[in-house]
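Issue: copy button drops trailing tokens. Both records pasted manually instead:
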Amino acid sequence: MDFPKCTVCGKSTKNNCNKCKSAWYCSAVCQKKDWALHKLLCANFTTFIETRPTTEIDSNEKLPPNVVSTTYKSAILFPENATIPQLIWIKSNIESTYEERFEKRPLTPNFHYYETLCSGLSKYMEMPSAHNDDDVEIWVGDNSLAECKANRCFATLNAGYFHGDVGGIFRPTHPILYAGNAIATRSITTQHEDPVVGKHEQTLYQDVTLGDLRRAFQFMARKNIIFEADKKNLFFLGDPGQWIDAVKISVSGDMYFDNKPKYRQVSIKSDHDIFTDKDTDVSHISELMGYPLLLRKSEYEDSWIDKVKKGMLLPHPFMNSEPCLLLRNMDVENKDGKWQSIDAEKWDHGMDSPVLVARKDKKDLTRYQVEALVTYVEVFIVPFFQEHDPDMSTRSTNNSITKNKREVVVAKFGSSTLFENFFENFKNMKLAAYRGNTDLSWANAVFFDRS
């Protein structure tokens, strides 16, 4: 006997929700994970199922020529203008089409029968189009992205998660995934053997379960690639081990208009483009210390970009010099002749972007670690070169320092032990009051994981 699958992890189980009887869980742990989403519909599910409409066609009314029968199937609506999903009834027709190729074949019917929800879906959207995830279909209007508002329900459930994070001037920060209404239905596809057409599939529709609410939402949110919010999202369930703590270094506009901190904590998926994109750069200083950091330009926030467009100008809204400190060239061989320089055309051209920072080995990274490393370069390395090579900052290349001197510099400042000592001292300064600011959250700051 095949048992239902756990709504969260997919394991076979006999245990369902005691109240709605419409979602299955293999353990209390999985049920707790699903609860924030499940409770939105659980309490009213049993009552709703009892309200199934009767057929609209009474005994005195004839069915349309191509409709064999009609009924209603339950579905889940993610409404355009509301924050909570809703249970709805969708009209379902069994329709027929005449197949000329079946003529004069006495063992084969001349009509092909199939089930369609189009007439029921038309109440909610024009030209419905389905996107499949196993036994769940997500219906949206073909023209919804161009003609409708962003789906408020999905935006609420998916708050803090985004599917885009590519740098660019005045680009939409996070393009809309769903607009207009979205509807989840349950379908099963069966295989049939026909003497004329051979093997073919037939799709039939069933009532949704509340386990389908989880499956539908996870499918809709499958392109989530980055999470950034002050409040934890309790609805979306990220795959265990697939999300990594990373850091964004804010541009001045983020801080001035949106009051965001210079270093802010984010989470990214392990297949984020920062790990493969050719525009990603590696911090030499972090690489020397044994925990290489990747840096990649990110997007501007729509909220303050619109303000800049309307004339609410900050003298320098696109300043972000801190990433340049991490990207100073510390290649002892100096193959490119750019020792202690950066790619100014890319990173220091006066229109800086917010910058995403992640560990190359995909281990977690904290804002404390990034801030400490930036400050370490600013306090130790930059003053050293200003003293020994004062003209360095005005040249695109730097060949004046010999290889022996470069080796001395790398041995001195590329030491993880030296930086670790600095990290602890910097932590104490932050807790005491550094540059006039006391940040008690630094009490939880830990050094880089080197395991």
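Record 2 (pasted manually too):
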Amino acid sequence: MVTITVVDQVEVQEIETAPLVGADQWRTVMAAADYRCECTGACGNRHSRTGLRCDATHDKWTKATGRIRLTAGPIDPITPTRTAVLLPASDLRAWCPKCFAGAARRARAAATERERRNDDANEAQGALF
């Protein structure tokens, strides 16, 4: 999508940026998300000021981060890349980089904790026999 607007005789172009590969699927995910990050707290931020959903919008410019580029990523952010690239659009969500990184960090920590607890439970079972 290219929109050309004339402002005070100066031409301004707004260009939608999309990935080079998988652009059709990416557009499907972004359209369903209204080009807004779909994180509702998986990253650790409750997003309480923005209706419990991240307000990062694709191609929006912020002073803190510059231009925001949303990605279409798996619902579970620690899904292996080889699996994620085969997922249909219905199993993908729009993520801003900050939320995706935070959600992945929290998911990895939870997986590590589950693994530790399973190991502890297995050791306790082994001690019984």
